[in-house]
Amino acid sequence: MVDLTELKTRMYTMAGNHKALAKVALLQTGAGRQLLRAVVETNAAGNEERQEDYGALLLSRYYSTLDATVEFAAGLVAGKIPEGFGFSTDSSYNFQVPRPFAVEGWPQPIGSPFRLSEWPTWVCVASKSSNPVNDPLGPMVERNFSVVVQPTARIDAWLGARSGTIGLTNYVAFVIPNRRARIREIR
Which of 49, 47, 111, 51 has the alpha carbon at shortest distance from 87? Predict the structure, then answer.
């Protein structure tokens, strides 16, 4: 198990530009927006902010401050995300460091949270403790976007991590790449 203090410490220690990129999949209903899955990467660069609204499914990618990211993580633990985020959850989340999916020394499989960054990473996964939220049913069509036949596959592509590989349907992966240069050998 990982506690919020360790996540906070690692975020602030490894944060070079003090920003985080949040890629979020939300279920939209008459009652509001529910969090399905998300990947939050600190020090992320090269992605534009974007949103795809398919009615029942909203895919969003935006930049956030580290303070807001820590507030989001605290809301997951408490089971109540602050109102400023525009979505909610109906239960609390448990933090854990996932075990590697491959034999030591071998590359991690594509779709695992360890492959979300090209740098060595520390990954923490927050998984929903109860009341799972299911992905919407497809196909989904919306003007200006391609047809989504399988919403689960589209969400996985949006986040960059396969939910089947992680073994969770409702999760938030916090990816903290270590971009500090290291000297491996001096000649």
Answer: 51
